[in-house]
Amino acid sequence: MADLQPCPLKTDPTSSCPSDGRWQFNTNVVFRSDGLLVARYHKHNLFFEQSFDTPPQPEIITFDTPFAGRFGLMICFDILFYEPTVALVEKGVRQLIFPTAWMNTLPLLDSVQFQQAFSLGANVTLLAANLRKDQYNMRGSGIYTPFSATYHHAQKGDPEEGRLLVARVPVLDPLWVGKNVTTKEGVVRSESTSSTATDSGFCNQESCSDSPPPENASSVPPSSATFISSMMFDPFTFVLLNETEGKVNVCNGTFCCHLQYRWLPQGDSKELYALGAFAGTHTVDGRYALQVCALVRCAGLDASSCGQEVEEAESKMDFLLEGKFGTRYVYPSVLASKMVLEQPEHLETTADGRVTMKHSNMTGGLVTACLYGRMYHLDNE
């Protein structure tokens, strides 16, 4: 909702108070079950919202519940920035509320694709409620944990109506799990908070699994026939997948992505895939620094179509996608045909920034497999 707040008129030249003496904020409100207002958050990262002001300071807002502990608040475009979203996670908040009016942008930022990616990459529960407005391509909501995704993504031509989603999810609040909790079987167990309370949620241990490290990506030379093509307004360096299986490398500057793959074409469908890499600052409709590795289905059979929007695919792919990132904030996604999400089989992060995503046995054709790294520390350079 909108919130109107009086502010001191500009006697002070550094004041951000508008000339009419009031701020207007895009606002989340939280009510307790008895109707008491318990939290209010003003959106910090506006997206072409001429009616609203940016608050003078980013707000880091949480509230406590009797049923699942602590939750944090953010709105829409906030999810792509450090404040408040990552600031909340780094304070130990593991459960986030996310109302949004998200315009889907393929191949990398479809609503449910990035909702799940953020939940996995930040190791949090995300409750995401999107508008349903086909005119602006707004659709796709869900309830995500690092272990599950319950979501709805309307298809073109579906009646324009809402959908109620219900899911049972584990409590992730580290201060809450230390209390006695009753499991579904009625067994009461007590958990120590010592290991989890300090975990910021981002997977930055030596390794998040016990499996042996994959072969060093740098041992495979960059594939020769690279080309530049625009993907979501950024100049990605691509290499085509020309075999039914193999290994390819592609670099954008010093940032390199590695792919090991087995392509499983279905029937006689002809499709083209490419591996793309980008390291730089995205500057269209917002400014934010990225390092991205993405395996995408191209829109046509010509290399110039790689990076364009695609919603459907028939080819399945077993793959290992890997990059060495200059950030620990990397959000992984596997998007299958007709906006179906797949839970990556295996994710691993090493202390030196190498992120590996392994997946096989796809249920549908592969549209995008992506490691979306956010270089928050470079946003203002």
From TrEMBL:
<dbReference type="InterPro" id="IPR003010">
    <property type="entry name" value="C-N_Hydrolase"/>
</dbReference>
<feature type="domain" description="CN hydrolase">
    <location>
        <begin position="1"/>
        <end position="171"/>
    </location>
</feature>
<dbReference type="InterPro" id="IPR036526">
    <property type="entry name" value="C-N_Hydrolase_sf"/>
</dbReference>
<feature type="compositionally biased region" description="Polar residues">
    <location>
        <begin position="190"/>
        <end position="222"/>
    </location>
</feature>
<feature type="region of interest" description="Disordered">
    <location>
        <begin position="187"/>
        <end position="222"/>
    </location>
</feature>
<protein>
    <recommendedName>
        <fullName>Biotinidase</fullName>
        <ecNumber>3.5.1.12</ecNumber>
    </recommendedName>
</protein>
<keyword id="KW-0378">Hydrolase</keyword>
<comment type="similarity">
    <text>Belongs to the carbon-nitrogen hydrolase superfamily. BTD/VNN family.</text>
</comment>
<comment type="function">
    <text>Catalytic release of biotin from biocytin, the product of biotin-dependent carboxylases degradation.</text>
</comment>
<dbReference type="Pfam" id="PF19018">
    <property type="entry name" value="Vanin_C"/>
</dbReference>
<dbReference type="InterPro" id="IPR043957">
    <property type="entry name" value="Vanin_C"/>
</dbReference>
<dbReference type="InterPro" id="IPR040154">
    <property type="entry name" value="Biotinidase/VNN"/>
</dbReference>
<dbReference type="Pfam" id="PF00795">
    <property type="entry name" value="CN_hydrolase"/>
</dbReference>
<dbReference type="GO" id="GO:0047708">
    <property type="term" value="F:biotinidase activity"/>
</dbReference>
